[in-house]
């Protein structure tokens, strides 16, 4: 399943040349992941309160392929590459139409609120498979 998250580039997302500032792509893909998790029916607040675990990004491998510009309409596509007991590996692409502007492979882990590694709750693993 591929999750699609639309977004528009605002002036605040750009540098003086009207090009999206490189760190903002990480914000874009974070918003898309949050929306993806919500669309899967996973309540992250309830997960923290009930299971005592949270999601955290462990690793991002990113490729900047082409610039996005002020007022562009973009789409972030998210898909699961792997699910293990304690981590998710996702591919996230930022596109303008079908043009790939940014590609990332993101590893998300599950942690206790104290920051210790934890297994993903069983219901979440089942949802993501």
Report the average pLDDT across residues: 94
Q: What is the overall silhouette?
A: elongated
Unreliable stretches: none
Q: What's the total helix number?
A: 3
Tell me the CATH topology: Thiol Ester Dehydrase, Chain A
How many separate domains make up the residues? 1
The CATH superfamily label reads Hotdog Thioesterase
Count of β-strands: 5
Structural description of this entry:
- The chain is of the alpha+beta class.
- The protein has a single domain, classed as Thiol Ester Dehydrase, Chain A.
- Helix content is 24%, strand content 42%.
- The chain has three helices and five strands.
- The chain has a five-stranded antiparallel sheet with strand order 1-3-4-5-2.
- Strand 3 (73-83) and strand 4 form a beta hairpin.
Outline of the structure:
This protein is of the alpha+beta class and 129 residues long. It is 24% helix and 42% strand.
Main features:
single chain; 129 residues; alpha+beta; Thiol Ester Dehydrase, Chain A; 5 strands
Summarize the SSE layout with pairings.
Blueprint: E1 2-8, H1 24-39, H2 44-51, E2 53-64, E3 73-83, E4 87-96, E5 99-112, H3 122-128
Antiparallel strand pairs: 1-3, 2-5, 3-4, 4-5
């Amino acid at each position: 399943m591929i999750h699609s998250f639309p977004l528009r580039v605002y002036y605040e997302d750009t540098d003086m040349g009207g090009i999206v500032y490189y760190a903002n792509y990480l914000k874009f893909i974070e918003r898309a992941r949050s929306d993806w998790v919500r669309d899967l029916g996973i309540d992250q607040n309830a997960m923290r309160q009930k299971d005592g675990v949270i999601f955290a990004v462990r690793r991002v491998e990113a490729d900047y392929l082409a610039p996005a510009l002020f007022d562009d309409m973009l789409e972030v596509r998210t898909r699961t590459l792997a699910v293990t007991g304690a981590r998710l590996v996702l591919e996230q692409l930022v596109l303008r139409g079908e043009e790939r502007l940014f590609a990332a492979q993101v590893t998300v882990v599950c942690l206790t609120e104290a920051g210790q590694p934890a297994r993903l709750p069983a219901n979440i693993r089942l949802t993501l498979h």
